[in-house]
Each structure stands twice: as structure tokens, then as C-alpha cells.
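Posting for a labmate who doesn't have an account.
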Amino acid sequence: MATLICDCNKTMPLDPAVLGRALDEKLTLHSTLCRREAGAFQQAVKSGDDVVVACTQEKRLFGELGQQTEGAVSPVRFVNIRETGGWSRDARSAMPKLAALLAAARLPEPEPVPTVTYQSAGRLLVIGPLQEAERFAALAGDVLDVTIFARGGSGAQERRYPVLGGRIGSLTGWLGAFTLAWSQDNPIDLDLCTRCNACVSACPEQAIGLDYQVDLQSCTGHRACVKACAVAGAIDFARPPVAHSDSFDLVLDLQREPSFARHAPPQGYFHLPPGQAQGPRALEVVIKLRELVGEFEKPRFFAYKQKLCAHSRNNQVGCDACIAICSAEAITSDRARQQIQVNPNLCVGCGACTTVCPTGAISYAYPRASEQGAKIRTVLSTYFTAGGTAPVLLLHGHERGQALVEELGRAARVGRAEGVPANVIPLPLWHIASVGIELWLTAVAQGAAHVAVLATGEEAPQYLEGLGLQMQVAQAIVEGLGYSGRHFSLLQVASADALDGELRLLASRRGATPAARARFAVSGEKRTTLELALDHLCDQAPRKPEQIALPPGALFGTVAVDKDKCTLCMSCVGACPSSALQDNPESPQLRFVEKNCVQCGLCATTCPEQAIALQPRLLLTPERKQARVLNETQPYGCIRCGKAFGTLKGIESMIGKLAGHAMFQGAALERLKMCGDCRVIDIYSSRNEARITDL
């Protein structure tokens, strides 16, 4: 693999020797790689090996240059080392960071995953005031097949587009598959209306507007409009409401309140409230609408393993963290099948569900956790190899977060900001919610002094709440183990200036790290990765308490059993999805393996005696991985044959509850103390029992 670095007209103090040693490659420093030294790029792309170009500004130019170069067959990747550190105030100290970014760019691309396909024929539904809807229809009508659903206003005299009217019942779907259901409950049939305006002139209450709909609250029943429209026959006040539905590929919503109230609306739906209908956002939306004709694909961002899911057992709901946090409302409960359902067409790939999932039943598929882990490990190991100390990982989104980082870098170049500090390593993600506690703790175990997540104000509120809780849990763990300092932070900034100030503070937050850095690879299983990280942090911990208290909602903990209430019915064992609660085939015992517990709450929900309560904590003694007895009792033997068929507390509780019932008196009550076989024998051998043959 060839790496091409450029100091961008000598504006960056790059040290090719330091960078080359860290990458185990001899590097040549260029100053105008995109101009006079472009021959070096052309020579590299003819080699057949992968090429990394340390420039993103001229990505398009390099692409065109590669197409024009005969024999250019090398795949090319681009990485930004300029705004991310080369233009900062302390750029001369940033070589370890820049080497880490170059090393990350050399990693192979994520493995391909199944895709989700959308097909759009360009059928556009515009909902809103008639004049505004027609204006947008004119901008896109040459490419798209436009239908308007009028919501008041006044339209043009010429009928250029189909116009619907009435009361909207529902709007559902996604790109290429929207369904609008509405009721035609207005006296004027828009298909029959000729827009002659005779009804508008005839109406004494002026209850008919130029959207050709009757305001029934203003109408007093003169019916002058009916007489004026006698020839066309478009007005009929006696017509019953007619239900309609139709399909569309795209939706432009010009109403004040959106039809989809969720934070992440479905793809293909655009909302432009009145305040934005005339601004730059409107132009951006029109351009996007015109481009959305054809077939489109996106990765299937998630993978789901139902056997690990702690959502439901026996029609009881335990964990619903993924459903609660999904801003696209793409996840629903399927209690009948004891699982969740994820609609891949609505999923936007934020990954928040994978972050809050306690078991790893739903995981991020593109890129996979193992691929993200390999990137973090490569970045940190290269950083240390190049002589860096106290690295801080800055995880940010690939759109607004990336733009803020680049804006800050440009401001630093002209002296208006300090820029990204030398020990702060920006790492772009598809979405900041896609990486959670298992990778944060892994990063600390591998030497990261701090992990920061950059929120820019476009994230759903529940995402920030979920990330905040995860950080509380992670911070409680490292503090409990004696690692001093703050290791995790959620930065909420909206401008480059604000980011500059936060990064200055962040660079000094140097949390303690293990004396020996971890070398393990991130597993595809969330709990496995967590255990690897915890084992390493515990082995190297300055302090080793027996347990660490964790905040509510943590994914580690124990269960407390009220022995006076518990009858050892073992309902909780059947409900436990992670085998944390277990029975003993040899004797009436309820056993518990704390390492397996995910704090889903299914045991507490299922327990008929309400004898179980969750206690979040992290136990650090060997007992955490061993089965321990939470409750036990004597077996209850059949009073006829002596065979054990229940527990003493269970039978006593049953007898106590049924003793007053009319059906369980005398001999019938004694049969409750018998096993199933003896109970049948006793009934048929008793002379006092009435038999059907005796009737």
C-alpha cells in the first residue's frame, strides 16, 4: 500500500520520517500533490496496490485525474490530516495523531452486508396550501408526477396537476411505498369542478375559497352554490363521505405540523413548514426530490439474534430499550413471537438500539463492532508507536460533526481558533449513537485517556439520554476500579467556536489508564467484548473492591429475592433469557449466575409473588461467574406414595389459598397434598365420589 502525504503548500509541518516509522513505510513529502506533483499520484495509482491520499479537499480532482491516467487500476482512499490536526496551533506535536489517522485509512473496507432496496417512479404527493403546493409542483413537475392534496389557500386557474381534498386519515410508508388514506367529505367534487368560480361568486357567506372547498362552519345552508353549479353538478351536500387511498413514492409536506411526528421521518418524506418554504432549505429539498427517481440501495444496518433478546417471554415484556430509543419508530414489539420486529425500510442506521441493547441481540452490521474495534485498536496502537501520550478519542458524526471539525481546522489556519489539539483524535462514525459502552471501555483498556462523543444538536433527545446513561455506567466502573480522572464526556456544541473551547478542556482531561495496554480484538458479541474489557481493567486496576454500585438502568447487576414470598415456582427461571437464573434438577433451589444477568427485568415481571427486585451493580469477586443459591426449601413428598412433586412452601401456599374454596373441602383438600398419579387413583378408589356411570 502506498501513502501519499502533502503539506498543502507548506502550511503543515509534516515530518515524513516520524510518520513513515509509525506506518512502516518510506514516505515522500509533497507540497502540491494536486497540482505540479500530480505525477506522483498518477504513478502510484498504476501500481495496482491500494493508495491512501492524505487530502480530502481535492478528492474530485484526484478522481478525474485517475480516470485520465492510462493503466490506473489502484483503489484510492482519502483521509483528512489537515483540518483534523495539521492546521492546529500545536500541529508540530501532532505527528502521532496524524500517523494514527493514516493508519486507520489503510484498514480494509468493511465487509459488505445485505442491502435494502427502494424503487421510486417519481410519484410525488405535495400536501399544503394550494398556491404553495402548485409553486413547488412547478419546480419539480418536469421530472416528477405531481399530485396535490390541498389544505386551503388559492390556486391558479389552470388545472396543471391533479388536486385532492378532504380529511386525511393517515399517511404511512417510506420511499417508493407511501400510502395516503383520506376521506372525501366536502360537498365539492374536485374531479367534476371546472373552476368556473360560479360557486365562489354565488356564496353569500363567502364560505368557498379558491381551493374549491366549502368551509362547513361558515356555510348556513343557502345552497346558492348548488344552483350556480347545476350544469357541472360538482356540488352535492347530501353526498356521504367517501374513503380513498392511493400510493406515492415521495411526499413533500408544507403543513405547519408534520404528518410524521417522529424525530427521524421515513426516507422520501420532506417537511417544509411555512417559515422554510421560501429559504435555502426549500431549494435543497427540491433538488433532492428531483434526484429520487429510480432504484436506490442502503445497507441493512442491523443484525438481530432472537435467541439473545430479552424483550419478551411468556407474553411478559422485559427489556424494551431499543423500542423506546428508536427515533424512526422502526422497531415494534411482537409479543406473540417473543421478539422485536425491525422494519429495515424505516431504519436510518443510527445504531442507538444496538448501543442500549443489554444482551447484544441487536447489533450494528455496517460497519460491524469487530471492524470498529479494529479501527480503534489500530488508531491507538499507531499513536503510541509514534510516541504519542494520553490520547483522546473524539467520536463524531460523518455529516454535521465532520463539518464542525473541518470548520474548526480552517479557523485555526487563519488564526481565529486553536484547532484540534495534538492528542485529540477525531474518528467519524455514521452516527454517534452507534458506538456504546463496550467499545468505550475497550478503548480505555487499550490506552485511551478519554473518550468524547460530539453531539451537534441534530440528534434525537432520547439518543443523548441513552448515551448519557451509558457514560454514567462506564464512568462508575472505571472510578470504582481506582482509575482517577474523568474518562467519558458527551460534548453538545453547535458551532466551531464552541467546539474549540470544549476541545481545549478535553485535551487536559487525562484519565488514568491501565499500566499494560490491552491487546484483545473486539468480538462480534457485545457481552463477550464487555467481559474482555472488564477483565483487563480489573487485572490492572489500582483498586479492587468487591463490588461497584451502578446507576439504575445499568446492564450489570444482581437480583434480590424475598425468601418469605418466594415459593420456588421457577417462573423466573423459565423467563430468564440469559440463563442467569437457574434451577437445580436435584433439589428445590433457585440459583443465580450474576455474570449472565442483563437486568432486563423479565424475572421481576413474571414472578407471581412479586418476590424479585433488580439491583444494578458490578460484582468483582470470583462469585460473579459462579452459580450461587438465592433461595431453597425442602421438597414436599406425596402423602400417599412419598414421591417429591413440589416444594414445601409452594404446596403450603397453594393449600392456604384454596382451603376456603367450596371445591376443596375434606378429601379434596387432602388430594392437593398428593402427586398427580395418586390424586387420580384416590378419586377413582373413593366410594364417596360421584361417577358419571352412576347417573
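Reply:
Got it, the C-alpha cells are right above this. The chain has a mean pLDDT of 93.
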